[in-house]
Each structure stands twice: as C-alpha cells, then as structure tokens.
Amino acid sequence: MLLIRGLHNLRPAHRDCIATIGNFDGVHLGHQAVFAALNERTSAAGLPSLVITFEPQPMEFFCPEQAPARLTRLREKIQAIAACGIDRVLLIKFDGRFAGIEAGDFVRRVLVDQLGIRHLYVGDDFRFGAGRSGDFALLRRMGVAHGFGVESLETVSDNGTRISSTRVREALQIGDLDHARRCLGRSYEICGRVGHGNKRGRTIGFPTMNLPLLRRSTPLRGVFAVRVTGLTSDPLPGVANIGNRPTLEGDNRFLLEVHLFDFDEDAYGRQVEVEFIERIRDEHKFESFEALREQIARDVECARAIFGLGGDDRIRSG
Predict the structure, then answer these.
(1) Are the beta carbons of 86 and 51 closer than 8 angstroms?
(2) Which residues have C-beta within 8 Å of that of residue 283, sequence separation ≥ 6?
(3) Is the previous residue joined to 56 through a cis bond, with omega within 30 degrees of 0?
(4) Can you tell me the distance from the alpha carbon of 142 to that of 146, in angstroms, rounded to the nearest whole number?
(5) In what order do the strands lie in the sheet with 2-5?
(6) Bridge partners (DSSP) listed for residue 162
(7) What is the rounded distance in angstroms from the CA atom of residue 259 to the CA atom of residue 296?
(8) Which residue ranges make up each domain of the chain?
C-alpha cells in the first residue's frame, strides 16, 4: 500500500481513483464494509482505491481537551487500512490552514484537480470545509458538475445498533471486550515499541515490558489477560496493566505494562502487539508495594487460569 503524506506530495500519477474520506478510528466493521465496497468498485473499474484521512483528527485540532480517546494511533490505523486491501492512503495534516479551506474549494482543488476522483464514498452525515459548510448534498451537486459519483453506504449494525467508533470506545471503557470484538471484527490491540521503565516491577518479582501509548488518552484502563506477538514465533500469554499506576507516588505517566509468563529475554526496542483477551479488574491504589505484589500474584493466577495454564508463575528479580 502506498502512503502519501500530505497534499504537497500528490503527483499526476495519483490521479484517477475511487476514494472514501473519514477519520476511520478503530477501522471497525462499518469502516471495513466501506473499504470492501471501494475495493469491489475499483476492481471492476480497473482503478486504484484511495482512503483520505487526517492527522490529527479534526476534533483533536479544534477541541483537544474534549476530543474522544483514540482507539488507534496513526501507525495502527494505517496498518489496519492496509490489511483491508486498500491501494493508497492520503494522509492530510489537519491544521489551521487546511481547516480554513472552503468546502467547494476542497472539492475542486483536491478531489477534482489533484486526485481526479471518479467515485466517492462518504457517510450521509459527513461534513467538511470551513465552518463544516460542506455536506453530502453539496458533494452530490458538485459530483454531477464535475463528473464523479457520490455514494453513501448503509450502516453496519450489531444487534440492531449501528457500529461506530463511539460504540467501540464505550465498550472498552466498561471493559466489555466481547462487545468491542464484535464491532471491530477482531480483538482490540495496542502496538508499540518496548521502552525502559523505572524497573520497580523487578523488585517485587514481576518484571514488565513498558509501552508508551503515544496518544492523548485511551478508552481502556485496568488489568487484563493479554497475548503478545512480535517477540517469538508464537503469541505469548501474560497480564497487563494500562493506566497511570496510582501506587507509584510522583509517577503519573499513562503506560501499558505487560508481565509475560515464563519469559525473561531482553525485549527493549522490540515492536510488539498486545491483544486484550479478558478484563480482570480495575486499577487500584495500594497502601504498600507488598500489597501490590500480592494483588499482582492473584492477577497472574487469574490470567493463567483464563489461558488454561497451570502452576505458579516464576517469581524472578534482577
């Protein structure tokens, strides 16, 4: 898949395509249905498929403190889009200059002149342009004038309720991983590069891999049974805490920490994917490290039972 970073990197060779526009946070089943329709039409027309998306997401630019928690950071989103068989992604930097483009100018300058779009898929509630003045009706009118089709697909539902990024976010916030899994069509995952932590986990017998989240916030927090890929040929089971570690005074960073069962290799700098399998409990503040150690031991026992693994986890230090 070709990633085009910015409008300034568009070339004549990128013209003539079939496209869709949106945030696509989470790349859930609703998004995947749009991509499937896009791919079907491009295959029939012999044209490349194009996904147009933004970084940051518009709400993060206009109201950063009120923006919803990210389901996927940029790298994860691009990987998920590529897995859907899309040919190209145009990543537009959403800043004050771009936000000020009038809706009609965006259609003429970007969709028509630079991209030569033949057909466009958008949601029927899609708004764009300065002051959000552009809508589905405007796209339809301009499509007729400039020779491209505009189409809105039926929403994808689960148990009669529309699948959306908001719905996935709400499921994760209450720890309902099964609901999130049904909406996503896959388990919820977070990927990242293993970094150095304060190594306090080693002092209580449970060394952890630390993954910076690289996003303003996440809807998921608490303790979970997880599987980790990227370190060995097979996924490794473990237990993870995602949160700000309230027991550690003076350290309020929001981190994903993973303790893997029976694994003691050096993982620093490795790129891994953490798959969330089942929620175990909320994150709590403990009165002492000994109380924290005892709870982690219970969490490990619970997670091992979820994976059908017997025996106690080896307690190590160093």
Answers:
(1) yes
(2) 221, 222, 223, 241, 242, 243, 244, 245, 246
(3) yes
(4) 6
(5) 2-5, 88-93, 49-55, 17-21, 117-121, 149-151
(6) 157
(7) 10
(8) 2-157, 187-306
Rounded CA gap, 125 and 130, in Å?
16
Q: What is the SS3 assignment for 34? A: helix
Q: Which of 105-119, 192-206, 299-313 has the highest mean pLDDT?
A: 105-119
Q: Tell me the mean pLDDT in the region 295-309.
A: 93
Query: Are 81 and 1 in contact, with CB atoms under 8 Å apart?
Result: yes
Report strand pairing: 255-260 vs 149-151: unpaired
State both tokens at 169: 């976010």
Residue with tokens 């970073």: 5
| Lowest mean pLDDT across 123-132, 134-143, 303-312 | 303-312
Looking at residue 301, its amino acid is E
If you write DSSP's letter for every residue of 37-62 in order, what string do you get? HHHHHHHHHT--EEEEEEES-HHHHH
243 DSSP 8-state letter: E
- What are the C-alpha distances in Å from 72 to residues 126, 188, 285? 21, 10, 27
Could you confirm whether domain 2-157 is CATH 3.40.50.620?
yes
By the 10 Å C-beta count (0-12 exposed, 13-18 middle, 19+ buried), 282 is classed as: exposed
Please report, for residues 22, 58, 193, 197, the alpha-carbon distance to residue 55 in angstroms, rounded to integers and kept in the order given: 11, 8, 21, 28
> Domain spanning 187-306: which superfamily?
Riboflavin kinase-like (2.40.30.30)
* b/e sequence 97-136, b meaning 16+ C-beta within 10 Å: ebeebebeebbeebbbebbbbbbbbbbeebebbeeeebbb
Rounded distance, CA 145 to CA 287, Å? 68
Q: How far apart are the first and last CA of the chain?
A: 43
